[in-house]
Amino acid sequence: MSRLSVKLPGLDLKNPIIPASGCFGFGDEYSKYYDLSLLGSIMVKATTLEKRYGNPTPRVAETPSGMLNAIGLQNPGLETVMTNQLPSLEKYDLPIIANVAGSSEAEYVAVCAKIGDAPNVKAIELNISCPNVKEGGIAFGTSAEVAASLTRAVKKVAKVPVYIKLSPNVTNIVPIAKAVEEAGADGITMINTLLGMRIDLNTRKPVLANGTGGLSGPGIKPVAIRMINEVTRAVDIPVIGMGGVSCVDDVIEMFLAGASAVGVGTMNFTDPYICPKLIDELPKRMDELGIESLEALIKEVKESRK
Amino acid sequence: MKQEMMLIESQIELAPRIFELTLKGELVEQMETSGQFVHIRVPRSDLLLRRPISLAEVNHEESTCKVIYRVDGCGTRAISELVKGQEIDVLGPLGNGFTTDFVKEDDVIFVVGGGIGVPPLYELGKRLKDKKAKLVFLQGFGTKDAIFYEKEFSELGMLMIATDDGSYGYKGHTGHLIEKALKIYPNPTGVFACGPTGLLRAVEGAFSDHPHVYLSMEERMACGVGACYACVCQSKEDPTVNKKVCDEGPVFKSGEVII
């Protein structure tokens, strides 16, 4: 085991750095720029049963230290993802986390039953927190009962461990985390984007065609840290932390909040080489902070809370 | 594609809010096709999204390139405040550029631009000039003050300018210029265009069955490399399919996407 490796259900990661879903396409888009085998894993773009067109443009807007997006889960659908996107990632030494979205429980179940057949898909990230679609997404993630029911349903059919991606757009995230753990979730990923809006001063209309969008980027990091800290104190299943990670110190802060691996989202747009840079810089910063290995750090954080 | 801290050789305000930035670096070696763009990181840590800016001129001998952009907000304003000797984070070249393989000597080519859509047409014009094509530049601007590179384009071919307010050239828009140019050259071999949606629609309408019409699109971008699906436009062949402007464009053949 290297000092950067971490072990989670279904995922033996050589390092904890994972490009977050929606910010890295289906992986291949960045393969022109560096060897994807350097990464711990990739959370590929959300896959739905049928292809989705997504929302009208403009789909993005800038905010101080962040951005809003309302892409609307555009993707080519399960069949194409299974035949084209996932096989093209097989050449890399990389366990894939497949992000699954849907507009009904039946759709989630259908996608989860099939997507684990791809040999490189080692875990599912259940997207119950996308704020940008009218049906599905966040509607499944804001009620503990609904989230638990969906978790139980997909756990019956999924061939790989299931991580539930939680929304920060709730009054209290802890009961939802506990509910999905109770329902059999193998892990949690958090946080998805915060619901936000910008208005154009000239047109007096929302900047995004969708009206509202999901806020991401360094501006949301304190919210993510707070929520990861709350959830990891309340559940025993591992949490992959994300939300505004932009530098190696943010990675370590996520671990100190209780995370067991780290997703990197918006910063891929600012610096397409951010993930390999973080992986490269991590050992030196660990040396400076007296961290022997990430597994030791995870254990230490857990024990300090007992 | 490369990311590089490029050296700023000069920064000139060509017209109110219109700036020409000359950059030097190894990245220039990879700039092969006119119509491609670079993605420039704003020199402010609180502004995360890069700005896509088309290449206006490429000089491989000097390892320099020029981009021309308009200050529209705080990001482009921050870029405009950089001076000679400073460095800027540039990613590129990105996207697919203009197809010029079909152009032969003495072919008449219309090159249609509007406002801040004009810059990539300069490098295109230079390359078409190298092929000894007869170039007709049709350009629309809001007003006289917004015009730039008039001399430079005039040196490459015939230049017709229209302004919305009639303060210079023809009063009207580029659609009117196309009508005038067609009276002189009724059968251009190719048409290239970059500018606002109305201009692109006018070009597509005027040359509906033409086999060589190429349009450069613009859309709000995030990643610039095809990963985020922000800058999409609708395919004409299959309206349920989106094409990514950054990756599959920005130049599309007329009829390929819905404008």
Automatic annotation (TrEMBL), chain A:
Sequence positions that bind FMN: 21, 45-46, 99, 127, 165, 191, 217, 243-244, 265-266
Family designation: Belongs to the dihydroorotate dehydrogenase family. Type 1 subfamily.
InterPro entries for the chain: Aldolase_TIM, DHO_dehydrogenase, DHOD_1B, Dihydroorotate_DH_1, Dihydroorotate_DH_1_2, Dihydroorotate_DH_cat, Dihydroorotate_DH_CS, Dihydroorotate_DH_I
Domain Dihydroorotate dehydrogenase catalytic: 4-286
Pathway: Pyrimidine metabolism; UMP biosynthesis via de novo pathway; orotate from (S)-dihydroorotate (NAD(+) route): step 1/1
EC number: 1.3.-.-
Cofactor: FMN
One biological process term in Gene Ontology: 'de novo' pyrimidine nucleobase biosynthetic process
Protein name: Dihydroorotate dehydrogenase
Subunit comment: Heterotetramer of 2 PyrK and 2 PyrD type B subunits.
Gene behind the chain: pyrD
Locations listed in the record: Cytoplasm
Species, as recorded: Vagococcus hydrophili
TrEMBL record, chain B:
Cofactor: [2Fe-2S] cluster; FAD
Pathway where it operates: Pyrimidine metabolism; UMP biosynthesis via de novo pathway; orotate from (S)-dihydroorotate (NAD(+) route): step 1/1
Signal peptide stretch: none
GO MF term set: 2 iron, 2 sulfur cluster binding; electron transfer activity; flavin adenine dinucleotide binding; metal ion binding; oxidoreductase activity
The FAD-binding FR-type domain, residue ranges: 1-100
Binding-site residues, FAD: 51-54, 68-70, 75-76
Sites where the protein binds [2Fe-2S] cluster: 223, 228, 231, 246
KW Iron-sulfur (keyword) present: yes
InterPro entries per the UniProt record, alphabetical: Cyt_c3_hydrogenase_gsu (IPR012165), Dihydroorotate_DH_ele_sf (IPR037117), Dihydroorotate_DH_Fe-S-bd (IPR019480), Dihydroorotate_DHASE_ETsu (IPR023455), FAD-bd_FR_type (IPR017927), FNR_nucleotide-bd (IPR039261), PyrK_electron_transfer (IPR050353), Riboflavin_synthase-like_b-brl (IPR017938)
UniProt keyword annotation of Flavoprotein present: yes
PROSITE patterns: FAD_FR
GO BP terms, alphabetized: 'de novo' UMP biosynthetic process
Co-factor note (free text): Binds 1 [2Fe-2S] cluster per subunit. Binds 1 FAD per subunit.
Top-level taxon: Bacteria
UniProt keyword annotations, A-Z: 2Fe-2S, Electron transport, FAD, Flavoprotein, Iron, Iron-sulfur, Metal-binding, Pyrimidine biosynthesis, Transport
NCBIfam families on file: PRK00054.1-2
Family of the protein in this entry: Belongs to the PyrK family.
Quaternary data: Heterotetramer of 2 PyrK and 2 PyrD type B subunits.
Function text: Responsible for channeling the electrons from the oxidation of dihydroorotate from the FMN redox center in the PyrD type B subunit to the ultimate electron acceptor NAD(+).
Name the record gives this protein: Dihydroorotate dehydrogenase B (NAD(+)), electron transfer subunit
Record lineage: Bacteria, Bacillati, Bacillota, Bacilli, Lactobacillales
